[in-house]
Specification:
Blueprint (H helix, E strand, L loop, with lengths): L4 H12 L5 H8 L3 H13 L19 E9 L6 H9 L5 E6 L6 E7 L2 H12 L5 E8 L12 H4 L2
Antiparallel strand pairs: 1-3, 1-4, 2-3
Helix pairs in contact: 2-3
Length: 157
């Protein structure tokens, strides 16, 4: 989909505030409300906007541990990828999972209430999953930048 400057501005504003009213959005991008709504619907229908969500404050919710975990699998175990992928879908502690390049096979982002909860997750679930050879944990000490917003510069050619 070709995005013009108005589409990019709409996306920027919606990323910053997904609850902005169509009226306010239209005013900010200098369109009529009906024209603005048509553009937003076109962005949704094309898949550029995949969904809307609330961003929760994990500290307020008491989730003290944020960890990135590299998982290396034993390749001699039959269907290791399928089995691991299926298992991680049932783990609420895993909030992100990625197949990566390098020495490990997967990178997981894990959230836990505290170190005891994280330790139980690693020992009772992760290490007990068939095919897991090694894990390397990196506990986040401080978050410097975290965003799901894509800057307009990234979206232009």
């Amino acid at each position: 989909m070709n995005l013009d400057p108005t589409d990019l501005k709409i996306l920027q504003l919606l990323q910053a505030d997904g609850r902005i009213s169509n009226q306010d959005l239209a005013e900010r991008v200098f369109l009529s409300p009906s024209s603005c709504l048509r553009r937003v619907r076109a962005l949704e229908e094309s898949g550029v906007i995949s969904h809307y969500r609330a961003v929760l404050d994990t500290n307020v919710l008491g989730l003290e541990v944020d960890a990135f975990v590299q998982v290396t699998m034993r390749r001699d175990v039959e269907q290791w990828h399928e089995n691991f992928s299926k298992a991680l879908l049932s783990w609420p502690e895993v909030v992100g999972s990625y197949i990566i390049t390098g020495d490990a096979n997967y990178l997981l982002r894990v959230r836990a209430r505290n170190l005891k909860h994280y330790s139980a997750f690693v020992l009772e679930r992760l290490y007990k999953t068939t095919g897991v050879l090694d894990i390397r944990s990196n506990i986040v000490l401080q978050t410097l930048k975290e965003s799901t917003e894509l800057a307009g510069e990234l979206l232009r050619e």
